[in-house]
Amino acid sequence: MTTELDLSIVVPVYNSAAMLDKLMARLTDTLSKLTEHYEIILVEDGSPDDSWAVIQAFRKTYGAHLVAVQLMRNYGQHNALMCGLGLARGEYVVTMDDDLQNPPEEIPRLLAQIKEQGLDLVYGCPSARSHAPWRNLGASVVWHFYRTVFKNPITPTPFRIMRQQLAHSVQFYDLNFTYLDGLLAWCTKRIGSIEVEHHVRQAGRSGYSVGKLIGLALNLYTNFSLIPLRIVSGLGFFAALTGFLTGAYYLFQYLASNIAVPGFASTVIAILVLGGVQLLALGIMGEYLGRLHLNVNRKPQYVVRQLDGLDRRSGDWA
What we know:
Layout: E1 5-13, H1 20-32, E2 38-44, H2 51-62, E3 66-71, H3 77-87, E4 90-95, H4 107-117, E5 121-126, H5 133-150, E6 160-163, H6 164-169, H7 180-187, E7 191-196, H8 210-224, H9 227-255, H10 265-296, E8 304-308
Parallel strand pairs: 1-2, 1-4, 2-3, 5-7
Antiparallel strand pairs: 3-8, 4-6, 5-6
Helix pairs in contact: 5-8, 9-10
């Protein structure tokens, strides 16, 4: 079989053994109507359930269309996607979640949009999200950060289609603390979106907790922007200016003999405010330095434990 494919579908798999049968059935049904030359890359990201056993069993059913990857441990969704993108050989590459909230039946619309508009990247943006309120709130914060940092009104989502050149262009980044949408925005400005359906999760619960969403936001800001450091600099300047003006005011009051009884309230407030600003500044700088330290030590982005369906050296099917 040749290595030239029309479509690659990359799906990070985590704790979704109960949904994989439906996911594969709907994916193959949709893709077979578009082309015979496609591949589905399932990246098992250290899942605690038996997802890997289910994926291996698919080899008998889906044969050469399936590429199965097992990572050594759980590295996170964006790192798992980087692994899948590096293996993708299709002219167009689609990424999506494993929970069927992104309907595979929307893939033809994404494909048509990227071809018709001559874009490098198209996001499938749902009109209404079937997530818990806290998850929607956390996602909104990440979107706001994205638009602020990259000056782009697009809403990034896990449901994307991109050209193979773009999928492979982000492979220059082999460090940890990955934020894929930031890397993609670094590499192209030809980004669009299309409204798609968003369904209720079929089974289980989301792997994204509040902590992981906060971590994603930190990855975005600390890897792609100096805004937090600039905010701290602004706070430091504001605190210093406030302290100077307050000191000048009380000096004037002292010289005018308007202070009858000296108090300690202003001193305590000043210490607390300035101490808080200093600790905040140290915390943000420490976040940058800590990530730099881990990356200098080459903390791996991901490590592949097992790869079935693709010979990485020759590019032929295994």
